[in-house]
Amino acid sequence: MSVVIYQREGKVAYITLNRPERLNALNRETCIEMAAAWQKFKDDEAWVAILTGAGERAFCAGFDVSGGAASSEDARYALGATPTARDIWKPVIAAVHGYCLGGGFLLAQECDVRVASEEAQFGLPEPKLGLATAFSSWFHRYLPAGPALELLLWGDPITASRAYELGFVNKVVPRAQLMEVAKEMADRVCTVGPIAVRRMKELFYAGRELTREQGIELMSRYFDEVANLADTTEGIQAFLEKRKPKFEGR
Which residues are CB-neighbours of 201 under 8 A, at least 6 positions away? Predict the structure, then answer.
């Protein structure tokens, strides 16, 4: 059985880590299949993806260390299993339950939006194993410095409600409602212009690296591109006619 399951329902793709007996922990095989799933999503006609984990105990408990400590090469495999490694500008939603630790935390943070069940736990247990966190150099982009360092240096997990307070999680819901709420969020994304959404996502992340002038230049190029789309014409016409637009991604 595949350790990563890819399914598509309409415009929504579902990517599921499928190692529940190992708390969906990552290994090289899983990372390779995850990378392939992200590439499939990038090439697919889906407009949005939901990433989750199989079973009831974990979203992803990190890299599987049952065979020994993870190496720098293992870390590279884990980094390659994220949507950002494939320059995917379609929106990605993480539906997190149970343990979200180490490499699982990495997967969740590299998604655009995170919805978590009430019992979810987020943590970086690496220091308790005498290990370093592979993505610590850019972890400050997702959390304020103080809480980020507390996670990195102490290794203690935080609750879903605390992750929400820190702005890492967008919404906390009962476990039974997790996938339903994630699907509702995905469906909302499918009501807006998909190309405009992808360009805004790219601009948002590019803005972390670009100067103001470079950002304005990129924005101008994308603004003109989007302004000339058939979807833009449809969106404006629908607004004037007081009806819902029918976007086609062109």
Answer: 89, 90, 91, 112
Lowest mean pLDDT among 73-77, 124-128, 186-190: 73-77
| Same-domain status, 129 and 220 | no
- Domain span at residue 149 reads 4-189
Contacts of 205 (CB under 8 A, 6+ apart): 84
Q: What is the pLDDT of residues 5-46, one digit of tens each?
A: 999 999 999 999 999 999 999 989 999 999 999 999 999 999
Burial class (CB in 10 A: 0-12, 13-18, 19+), 66: exposed
Q: Which residue has the tokens 């607004």?
A: 239
Please check whether residue 248 lies inside any domain of the structure. Answer: no
Question: Global pTM?
Answer: 0.93
Does some domain include residue 157?
yes
Across the chain, mean pLDDT equals 91
